[in-house]
């Protein structure tokens, strides 16, 4: 039901914390809020919910990538994205990228545990423009088997762009991305790990951007205090925030 997503986005845009919280508390399949405590580690039930979603996605993505079906693999990759405000720390991209990689390796013996290892089914994000291969900073791909070799399949409309993995120099594993990097993209579902309320990245713009990346469903993991902080704080009022939001 996109109606509830629209209601949540509108409440954020209007800056009404009570309306935002009401939308989050509404029982609706399109909007889910897993409330946590800023003072505690993310609880096991919240981690378990995220793990289940990640492994469900892998159940579609890995077979497609291993069989060489680039179209299906790219489509599977675009169904869900884990978004973090921070790059570092317990709620940041680096931590959760490592956590997801561990979950996947625990699930499937064919997945290597080394961060630098490439394998069919690995999501990648480009970190610098590559004019020779027409790849741009922020582009995402999934590694796909092509015979005995591997290619990175990038979403380019109906027909993915395939680049031999050895020619993709500036790319890192992507199991989570910053909200900033997600701008301009949409996914069927997003899971958002909110920063703590005191974080300078807890802003209305950040939360609005995160929520509006979802076409069908958004899951928010965070505290009520963090939600209220996001609604109350506007990015342009925080000195240096633009720099800190950079990926």
Q: Could you characterize the architecture of this molecule?
A:
The protein has 247 residues and is of the alpha/beta class. It folds into 2 domains: 2-41 and 177-245, P-loop containing nucleotide triphosphate hydrolases (Rossmann fold, 3-Layer(aba) Sandwich), CATH 3.40.50.300; 44-77 and 89-172, no CATH class. Helix content is 38%, strand content 21%. It has 9 helices and 10 strands. It has a 5-stranded parallel sheet, sandwiched between helices. The radius of gyration is 18 Å and the shape is globular.
Short account of what is shown:
By secondary structure, the chain is α/β, with parallel strands linked by helices. The protein has helices at about 1-15, 15-25, 45-65, 70-75, 95-105, 180, 205-210, 225-230, 240-245; strands at about 30-35, 80-85, 125, 140-145, 150-155, 160-165, 170-175, 175-180, 185-195, 215-220.
